[in-house]
């Protein structure tokens, strides 16, 4: 569609011309409950008035709007011909004055893809739920606006909806008036005008939500009292699973932490947190009305790691109230100014303010794994990225912008000191409140508070791509004492920067035969260039394990000397410190990904030492890595035997785990995912039927679906069993599980139907598209999936052109033929890339990333 993909140059020119004074947005969503919907799809009334200034009299510009129908456009009191000024995505504005008023009255479309105003019908009770999701540029699907982050303005919303609904927006409700007319009783909600914010963080949530309230209060310096009304909400069907007390506890702990350290009171009034259905993201930081995916409302038994992950997300979004909402990047190049900071501050506050004191372990093991993968893809980019347009921006919500950026900030805290870093944040908020910033603005305050020149640090860590490897090399004297320890730094040829690293090097050994491996010596050192000597450790007794980047101070791939690798093969589970052990698991996985450690060796480590892992989050990450090593990095001829060995080990650990423990649950799920023999499937069937039992294992509804998917994929359960299960769990969550399991069945007819529903039709919602893709792409069904490799490359350009970017991304990523013949798929991918050089850059990026994963898998298989 012309103009839909806004470019950075267009945004800069519009920002040069325009200053926005305010928006008044009126939405009428009573049509959400119409049944059946009107021909052409459901729409709602959207009327927007924008008041703005223009720097040049007579200049031209445009407003953004994606709507099937525009009723009228009025500029400065003159009604404009709609068919001449609206092209489907932009409203052309000509002859602008110094001060202007634009009113656009439109019929906008409800979304089934999680973009714009999403419309969800709960299959359990037929109730309708609405919510908005805009990042980076989907507010224009709901109201006319200037859709770029640096044109901030106050917003005043009013929403007309069924009278019995709960309706929320960014501002507090200021009044409610009844609406007369036929049909169900309705009302109009009026909301307080917001502080200046960007379009992408405005929000509306509406429906018969289950809504719980609480309150936060705090004395501020000077005696002023801060009062923040709190709310938490979910669908009525999830209310019995909702735990708002836990959510409010974390919320209050977060507000205490951020008020203690940021020196700027929460500026957006009330604070609602809405858990909404079919959400594309983890969460979104809309000020005063944060939205989360409803999977954070746990329907069954789950692990401490899941609760920790939810708390981390709650704190991540709260941090955005300052980093991102109060102070916002000018353009998406500096997306890291909000996401990297929120990722770092979430871990920081999680450890210091909540019960999850192990947060840095999860950060080192889980979040950084995401960053390491992203930073080795052909699409890697500096933390401060080059974002040409909105499609680039959409793809840059990646492991570099979030987890690498957060890791770099952790390194920065070590570089400038905690106090200087936090004082820099306080000055940043005071200086740029309600405004927009770039990298230079942040570096300026950090330079002031630390007394350091931030230019070199920024160039090395923020403005270059790639990840360094650090490897220790030790020499010993005749008595076995260290004579020299050198850290070697390497960088890939494609990104050759050698960075400065502040690292701790730890030496580990057993203090007594058969005892745990403990650290007996440690030294911090600044690694500079290709080689750095660690003089403080000279003369130490010979270690069994040398751990570079002990305590996880920097962002790097840690390597091992041969002696240390031998120790890990024999005694990985004996490392006493959980962070050190997590770092070793992560380093071993990076060796496997880089084809320096055969997949069979990594799987052997999982079999031998997985049961000794005490940290549940680390264990679940190791399980995920083991699954990848099995299905992608193990040669086809060795895969069946490897799967049997992994399933045997998983079942052994499942039976050993403490009854009712998190570890028991994690091993049960892992066993189901790698079940390989008839005996394995018989056990799963028995656990579902209640004829088999493992002491303490509660096979609740979520675990039942986890067992049913592998049974279905391997032909041990079919449509009848799935229908029975849906009857037990006829809910929105049950429907998603049911759709995924249906698509997992080992049948050519099933695969053809799933392909058609996802690729050739747009009837499914975003959540059901995702579920269908997950079920379709089964690693054990390579022959069934083989016909779709060629069809994939024939289809993806059309999918990219016709579908919304969220759905197109899901299809391009999820249906890439990764489980088919890898060499043939690699050749087909190269052929498509060669013959489609003019394809949209964002589409080519996704295909290039999938190709890189495929090539990596082939290299790994060659080492086995």
Provide a descriptive summary of the structure in words.
The chain is of the alpha+beta class and 864 residues long. It contains 28 helices and 28 strands. An 8-stranded mixed sheet has the order 5-4-7-2-1-10-13-12. A hairpin with a 6-residue loop joins strand 12 and strand 13 (186-191). The chain is globular, with a radius of gyration of 28 Å.
What is the topology?
Blueprint: H1 8-17, E1 18-28, E2 43-54, E3 61-64, E4 69-75, E5 78-80, H2 82-85, E6 90-93, E7 99-109, E8 116-121, E9 128-133, E10 155-162, E11 166-169, E12 173-179, E13 186-191, E14 204-207, E15 210-219, E16 225-234, H3 244-262, E17 271-276, E18 283-284, E19 289-293, H4 304-320, E20 328-329, H5 336-353, H6 359-374, H7 390-395, H8 400-416, H9 418-432, E21 436-437, H10 439-450, H11 454-461, E22 469-476, E23 482-490, E24 501-510, E25 517-527, E26 531-533, E27 545-550, E28 557-558, H12 562-571, H13 578-593, H14 599-609, H15 616-633, H16 636-656, H17 662-674, H18 678-689, H19 701-713, H20 719-728, H21 732-744, H22 748-759, H23 766-776, H24 782-785, H25 788-802, H26 805-814, H27 822-835, H28 841-863
Parallel strand pairs: 1-10, 16-17, 17-19, 20-21, 22-28
Antiparallel strand pairs: 1-2, 2-7, 3-6, 4-5, 4-7, 8-9, 9-14, 10-13, 11-14, 12-13, 15-16, 18-19, 22-23, 23-26, 24-25, 24-27
Helix pairs in contact: 3-4, 3-5, 4-5, 5-8, 6-8, 6-13, 8-9, 9-10, 13-15, 14-15, 14-16, 15-17, 16-17, 17-19, 18-19, 19-21, 20-21, 21-23, 22-23, 23-26, 25-26, 27-28
